[in-house]
Amino acid sequence: MSADFPAKMSRFVQRGINGGGSVENLKRLSGGANMESWSFDHAGSGYVLRLSRSAEMMAGRAYGHDAEAAVVRAAYAAGVKAPEIVAEITPDDDLGTGYLMRRIDAEVNPAKILAAPAPTLLSDLARELAKIHKIPIGNLPALPVTSSRSLLSELKERFLSFGGDRPVMALAICWLEEHCPAAVDPVLLHGDFRMGNIMADADGLAGVLDWELAHLGDRHQDLAFGCINSWRFGHIDRPAFGLGSLEEFWSEYELASGVAVEPDRFRWWLIYATLWWGVCCLQMADIWRKGLDAGLERAVIGRRASETEVDLLMLLEEFVPDQERGPVNLDTPQHATGNGEPSAAEMLAAIASWIESDIKPNAQGRDRFMASVALNALGMLRREAEQPVSVHDKRLSEQLRSGAMSLATPGLFDRLRQQSLRKLMADQPKYSALAKAIQQWV
């Protein structure tokens, strides 16, 4: 927090809320890799400021915070559980761009929500999406109009711009190109409707947050997005948002919307969304590498691409010829007993031990959260030092994109499974798909 930030905040709040009193209990909320969120109290009410201080961080976005705020206002007016916006930042506030919302006091942590979800929560999510998709386009600001082909083309270009050297992602792009569904009449999409962006309490859904990716397109994109394994937070056995079955989710949505869900179209968007998150992880690394955001959290998210590669292989497996689906020979890493000077893995373990024992217990708020992020990063590096693995292969990626190789190429699926499993073992050994994939493939 800069020294002048609290004073600027106070002036903005006084202007935006038009009331006396001071800003109290100001704190930055944990998480939020793309935007800052600041919670505070004022005159007996709670508020959250959504903020971007850097023009660079807004570069490449389809629209600014003014249009985003207009979408949130339209959703709130339509009865969607979106936050109520009370003020928007102007250039005179000297804070950047963003808007101020009334705070929704409910749980946002996906692990806590999924540990004991309200019985109605999955139905609530289905009905909320139906409500969003019914908002008249005429009530909205100008938003991007998308199709499956346009989004896939953009995603492919992003993949290539980040090196284009991850064969599993190249394979997924080829499959998506070959199976691209026909265009449909567009509706308003939230664009990021998933655990982590919804709030819940004992009564069910309490709030829908983070509207920065809202656009017009195929409703199946919204339906599938929150169902990718990354957003189920360990509940791999509950394919609908980590809460229940797809059949229950679809049934509730169809009842509320009057529109039938198309399973094949849903599957295409599920694979697309899984790939999209993988490419986003590569983008996080690129942002960090260019110095646009030097935060550790962004660099660590860059190492989450491997989770999507195992997920993609599991989703694509049904399209692999039977003779290529044999068991994977996965070597168990051998941890040698050290002698002499400490190895790289041992040094990393020593640093992690120090953070765990001396730093994290004394940290508070975001500092404690970042200590956990640092421990996660050190664990990745230690495991990689013990068993080096690389999934970067530009030549193979180009062969897949050109059609010279495919899911039917003898030995390819086995090779990709071996490499992807080893990479995920280093990056995220507790990721839910790893245990399931090993059980299924090894």
Describe this entry's structure for a reader.
By secondary structure, this protein is α+β, with helices and mostly antiparallel strands. The chain contains 17 helices and 9 strands. Strand 7 and strand 8 form a beta hairpin. Helix 5 (121-133) crosses helix 9 (246-257) and helix 12 (305-316) runs antiparallel to helix 16. The N and C termini lie far apart (49 Å).
CATH topology of the largest domain: Aminoglycoside 3'-phosphotransferase, Chain: A, domain 2
Structural class: alpha+beta
Oligomer: single chain
Question: Mean of the pLDDT scores?
Answer: 94
Unreliable parts: none
**What sort of overall outline do the alpha carbons produce when their principal axes are compared?**
globular
The H/E string reads HEEEHHEEHHHHEEEEHHHHHHHHHH
- The CATH class label of the largest domain is Alpha Beta
What is the C-alpha radius of gyration, as a whole number of Å? 23 Å
The CATH superfamily title of the largest domain:
Aminoglycoside phosphotransferase (APH), C-terminal lobe
> How many H/I helical runs?
17
Largest sheet: spatial strand order: 1-2-3-5-4
| CATH-scheme architecture of the largest domain | Alpha-Beta Complex
Portion in beta strands: 5-15%
Q: Give the strand tally.
A: 9
Could you describe the largest sheet, including whether it forms a barrel? 5 strands, antiparallel
Distance between the termini: 49 Å
Tally of structural domains: 2
The amount of helix comes to 40-55%
Organism: Sphingorhabdus contaminans
Keywords: Transferase
Domain Aminoglycoside phosphotransferase: 26-241
GO molecular function: transferase activity
